[in-house]
Fold these 4 entries.
Entry 1:
Amino acid sequence: MKKIIKFIQESIAELKKVVWPSKDDVVAQTIVVVIGIVITAGLLAVVDFVSLQVVSKVLTLGM
C-alpha cells in the first residue's frame, strides 16, 4: 500500500512540473493539423481520380 501512495504522490509532483500549452497554442496547432488533413485528403482524392482514369483507359484498350 505504501508503494501505491508513494506512486500517486510522485505522479502529482510530476504533474505540477508540466508546462501546459496555452489556449492560443492549442488552437493554432489544431488549425495546422486540420489544414494538413484537408491538403492530404485533397491530394489523395486527386491521385485516386487520376489512377481510376488510367485504369479505365487501360481496361478499355483491349475492347
Entry 2:
Amino acid sequence: MTDTSKQPVVLIVEDDADDFFFISRVLENIKSKFKFDAIWVKDGLEAMDYLLRRGKWENPEKSPLPSLVLLDINMPKKNGLEVLKEMNEHENLKNLITIIFTSSRNELNVVLSYELGANSYIYKSSEIDKLGKKLELLFSYWFGIVELPSHTKEN
C-alpha cells in the first residue's frame, strides 16, 4: 500500500472474494489514470469499524477517511443499507461519497439506498470489460469532474 495521506482512498466494502478479485483487477488498470489507494473490508461491520476507527482500524494512518466508498448491499453481519443508515448517524461520515455497487436489482434496495444517502446505485457487471468501463466512468466523474470538499481531496 502506498502513502494514503497523499492521495484519495477508496474503501471497497465487498464480502465476495471473486467480486473483489475482479474489482481489484479493474482498479489496477484505472490507477494509471487516477491516483488513489484502495482498502478492502469484507462486510458492513468491518466497514463501520474502519470508518469509526475501531479495533484493528484504530490507527488513523491505517484508516484515513475515504474519498469514495464502494458499498455492496448483500453482506453478512451488517448489510449495505444498515451501513448507510449508521453512516448518517455520524456527522463526519454522512456526507462521504457512497456508491452502492451491487448485484442486487431489487427496486426496494434502489429506493432505500437513495433515501439513506447513497450518491449512486450501480449494478455490478459480471463481465470484466463492462465492469471496467463502469468503474472508469465512475472514477472519471468523482475524481476528475466534480468539486469535492477538502476532506476528500489530497492532503
Entry 3:
Amino acid sequence: MATALNSDVNDLSYEQARDELIRVVAELEQGSTTLEESLALWERGEAAAKRCEEWLLGAKARLEVARSTNTE
C-alpha cells in the first residue's frame, strides 16, 4: 500500500530515485530518528529502490530490443 510519502516516488527519474535512496540510507544510518520516522524512511527507501529497479528493467528491455533489431 502506497503512502503519501511514497506516492511521488513514481514520478522520479532514475537518478532522482537513486539520490533519494542514498539520502534515506544516510538518515537511517545516523540513528537519530524515532521508530515511526525510521519506519517511514524505510518505506520511502523501499519505494525509491523499487523505482530504480523499474528504470533499470526498462533500460534492459530497451537494450534487448535494440540488440535484436541490429542483429536481424
Entry 4:
Amino acid sequence: MGSLSESGIAVHLDELLERKGLTLTQLADMVDVTIVNLSVLKNGRAKAVRFSTLAALCRALDCQPGELLSWDQQK
C-alpha cells in the first residue's frame, strides 16, 4: 500500500526496495541522499521531493515516478 502523507500522496518505497532486494542504506548510498531524508520520504512525512532526487530514485530502483508515488483521491 505504501505510506500515506497528510496530502494524500502514498510513497511505495518499501515495495520497490523489496522488489530490487535493496536496503534503505544501500539506496541512500546509490542516490547520495541521507538515510534520514529517505526515511522521512519512505514514511510519508516529506513535504517535498526535488525532481533530481526523484530521478535518482527512479534510476536506482528502475521504476517510473508513478510506481514510487501515487495519490489517494479520498484524502
